[in-house]
Amino acid sequence: MPSRERPWHSSCFSMRPGRICKAGAAEAAVKGAGMKSLSTSEVLRGSRISAKQLYYWEKVGIIAPERVRFGSREYRRYSGDDVQRLRQIRRLVLCGYSLRGAARRVEEEIWNGG
After folding, report:
1. Where would I find the beta strands (DSSP E) of the chain?
2. H or E element, residue 90
3. I need a labelling partner for 77 at 20 to 30 A (CA). Which of 45, 48, 67, 105 fits?
4. Taking 50 as the threshold, does the pLDDT of residue 84 lie above it?
5. Are the C-beta atoms of 49 and 88 separated by less than 8 Å?
6. Where are the domains of the chain?
7. Which of 29 and 71 is assigned the larger pLDDT?
8. What band does 104 get if pLDDT is binned at 50, 70 and 90?
9. Spatial distance between the Cα atoms of 38 and 79, rounded to a whole number of angstroms
10. What are phi and psi of 67, to 5 degrees?
11. What are phi and psi of 109, to 5 degrees?
């Protein structure tokens, strides 16, 4: 009978706070962001999560982007740190953590100097 164990990803064992995977061009933009804020589309490319996930994570309070008004429209703007945090949470969720548990662990690492 085949094993029903959850598949583990190599990133589960090598995750370090503040680490960003080097694959893809969007990550380079995230790394070089510094004080620059990123649009939602840039975040989606750099964090490898879907728009639906991003908006849900915002709705439940895991991420709180800055809101910028331009005329009658309002836009979300994210910092490079926000993207790093999203990617760390995503890795932990892939490793079997609940969404809340992953967010809590990343937040603890940030507060403990990680």
Report:
1. 66-70, 73-77
2. helix 80-94
3. 105
4. yes
5. no
6. 23-87
7. 71
8. very high
9. 6
10. -105, 130
11. -65, -40
Query: What is the CATH code of the structural domain delimited by 23-87?
Result: 1.10.1660
Task: Report the C-alpha gap between 47 and 39 in whole angstroms.
Answer: 12
Q: Cα–Cα distance between 99 and 92 in angstroms, integer?
A: 8
C-alpha 109/C-alpha 52 separation (Å) is: 26
For residue range 45-82, list pLDDT tens digits in order. 878 889 999 999 999 999 999 999 989 999 999 998 88
Given a contact cutoff of 8 angstroms between Cβ atoms, the answer to whether 94 and 11 are in contact is yes
Q: Do the beta carbons of residue 24 and residue 100 sit within 8 Å?
A: no
The pair of three-digit structure tokens given for residue 78, joined into one six-digit string: 């994210």
Beta bridge partners of 74: 69
Helix axes 80-94, 40-47, angle to 10 degrees: 40
